[in-house]
């Protein structure tokens, strides 16, 4: 019975730390990242780590603060690297031919499943079996998706 009582007390202590410090930790993360969604993700991940290590942590607030700052620093570094290695902007890319623009516009009229099937078949040159595996359907369904997708594309390109 004492093990169960200790677990209940332990969970209550964790819950109290979470309720009292989630908002301040989120504000700390937001100031560092500049993104509320990233801040919430960082803090959630930090609390998850704290939950797993709570038996060894003597000062939860200090531990969480350090974890949040560390994760925020990593998040900012990743964003800097992503920006540095991001593909060139639209202005730096060569202009598309009128046919390419028309095909891209026609592709926007396909529903996502048809668009995925057409892309996998005609851009990645996958077989029907490979497309079926990627989409989680039967090869016969792939044939149907391709047929309908191509019909919509033809209709859009004929206009």
TrEMBL record:
Keyword DNA-binding: yes
Coiled coil start-end: none
Any single biological process term in GO: DNA-templated transcription initiation
Key words, A-Z: DNA-binding, Sigma factor, Transcription, Transcription regulation
The keyword Repeat belongs to this UniProt entry's keyword annotation: no
Superkingdom to which the source organism belongs: Bacteria
Gene3D superfamilies: 1.10.1740.10, Winged helix-like DNA-binding domain superfamily/Winged helix DNA-binding domain (1.10.10.10)
Gene Ontology MF: a single term: DNA binding
CDD domains in alphabetical order: Sigma70_r4
InterPro entries, sorted: RNA_pol_sigma-70-like, RNA_pol_sigma-70_dom, RNA_pol_sigma70_r2, RNA_pol_sigma70_r4_t2, RNA_pol_sigma_r2, RNA_pol_sigma_r3/r4-like, WH-like_DNA-bd_sf
Residue ranges constituting the RNA polymerase sigma factor 70 region 4 type domain according to the UniProt record: 102-151
Residues in RNA polymerase sigma-70 region domain copies: 18-79
SUPFAM superfamilies reported in the protein's UniProt record: Sigma2 domain of RNA polymerase sigma factors, Sigma3 and sigma4 domains of RNA polymerase sigma factors
Entry similarity comment: Belongs to the sigma-70 factor family. ECF subfamily.
Name of the protein described by the UniProt record: RNA polymerase sigma-70 factor (Sigma-E family)
Organism for this UniProt entry: Longispora fulva
């Amino acid at each position: 019975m004492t093990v169960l009582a200790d677990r209940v007390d332990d969970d209550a202590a964790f819950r109290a730390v979470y309720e009292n410090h989630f908002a301040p930790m989120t504000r700390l993360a937001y100031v560092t990242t500049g993104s509320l969604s990233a801040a919430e993700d960082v803090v959630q991940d930090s609390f998850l780590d704290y939950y797993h290590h709570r038996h060894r942590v003597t000062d939860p607030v200090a531990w969480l603060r350090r974890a949040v700052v560390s994760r925020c620093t990593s998040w900012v570094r990743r964003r800097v690297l992503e920006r540095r290695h991001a593909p060139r902007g639209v202005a730096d890319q060569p202009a598309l031919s009128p046919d390419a623009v028309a095909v891209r516009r026609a592709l926007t009229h396909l529903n996502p499943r048809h668009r995925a099937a057409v892309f996998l078949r005609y851009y990645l040159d996958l077989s029907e079996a490979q497309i079926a595996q990627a989409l989680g359907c039967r090869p016969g369904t792939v044939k149907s998706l391709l047929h309908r997708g191509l019909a919509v594309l033809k209709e859009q390109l004929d206009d």
